[in-house]
Amino acid sequence: MYPKEEKEQFFQRLQSIGWYQTALEQVFEEIGEQGKTVSEEGDYLQEAQLFGGPFFQKLWLAEEVQNSRLGAQELLVLAMKAVGMPEELSGDKSETNLLLARIAPDLTPHDCFWKIFSKTLRQAFPADDFSQRDGNQKLKRQLHQFRYVISCQQAQWVREHYRQTGMTDAEALASYLKDWPALPYSFQESSRLHNKAYIDKMSEQAIYPDGQASQANIKILIDFHTEFILDQGGRFLNIIDPEGASQNGIVNGASFNYGERNRPVNQASHTRYDVKTPAVWDPRFRRLVIENGGRKFKSPQNNRGPLGYRSAKSPYARKGRSAYKQVKEEIARFKKLLNRPSFLLRSWACFRQFWQKFFAQKNTD
């Protein structure tokens, strides 16, 4: 493949990025066995730093097999360097675009690498370690906030591959799920934490982000880790968004799950890695939006009490329908999209766009 001297120099450059010699030897041995030739060094150096790309994944798997807890943390440091992850997200669109550009463009929301990456994180921070303010706090903060980057990337991937002109994000997501019918997607996990509102004590009325008249954000998961949140208008809700994050998106948006679904055998994995961490590691811009100048947006309580998610008399309820029931109705509406042929989704999007343009033109005349 290379003269020994050149190979050593090349490996040193890859090691300077953070990859270990043993992983490099293993991956390049496999390349040689497959009869493949090595392309330009620059290509491999670039691919070794493209998060989630094929070569990056090969190296990650070679490293992950032999990892200790400390080794897993070092691998995660490498990942954060690869994406150029800041210690604190700003929410700025230009920053978001730069981060997305460092992630492999063909990395799908259902790629098995997401599960592998999550496993590495759980290995690096066992039990309650990830939500504790000790150890490598910078890395913990980066990794927690990277959940928002991942969800943003996954939503953007769906937009770029499935959202045709005139389509909503919901229609694009439905098209994606229809294209991959074997995907383990689910509507079963609660959307309660993604339906925060401010409850005015005087009027006992819910005031929703963006001044919405009502709110019923729904959650769709793929293999539990990948998470999409949609508002009633069929728009993705994300905490950062290259198309511009709404107040609802920042408050109630999607966050990739590092943990596994809570079960007695995994010591409440989802709670440890995904539910507890925002209170500790969330970016300042999001905390300020949620605080809302003293009128804090809060999730309904997980009960049927006065502020309960399942109560028809709660301020979160609307016209006698609990927040839980409103969400179920929105999920049923989304499921109807899954039952429509793809060509009808596209045709309806074109038809809707035509009438929107028609009425917009009429209003300017």
Name the structural class. Answer: mainly alpha
- The strands making up the biggest β-sheet line up spatially as 1-4-5
**Helix share, percent:** 40-55%
- Strand percentage lies at under 5%
Description:
- Helix content is 50%, strand content 5%.
- The chain has 365 residues and is mainly α.
- It has 2 domains: 78 residues, no CATH class; 267 residues, no CATH class.
- The protein has a 3-stranded antiparallel sheet with strand order 1-4-5. It has a two-stranded antiparallel ribbon with strand order 2-3.
- Helix 5 packs across helix 8.
- The chain starts with a helix and ends with a helix.
- The model has no long low-confidence stretch (mean pLDDT 91).
Layout of SSEs?
Elements lengths: L3 H14 L3 H13 L7 H7 L6 H11 L4 H15 L9 H9 L11 H12 L12 H26 L6 H11 L5 E2 L11 E3 L4 E3 L10 E5 L3 E5 L16 H6 L16 H7 L2 H4 L2 H8 L31 H17 L2 H23 L1
Antiparallel strand pairs: 1-4, 2-3, 4-5
Helix pairs in contact: 2-4, 5-7, 5-8, 8-9, 9-14
Features:
DUF3114 domain-containing protein; 365 residues; globular; two-stranded antiparallel ribbon; three-stranded antiparallel β-sheet; DUF3114; 5% strand; mainly alpha
Give a quick summary of the entry.
The chain is mainly alpha-helical. 50% of the residues lie in helices and 5% in strands. The chain has a three-stranded antiparallel beta sheet with strand order 1-4-5. Strands 2-3 form a two-stranded antiparallel ribbon.
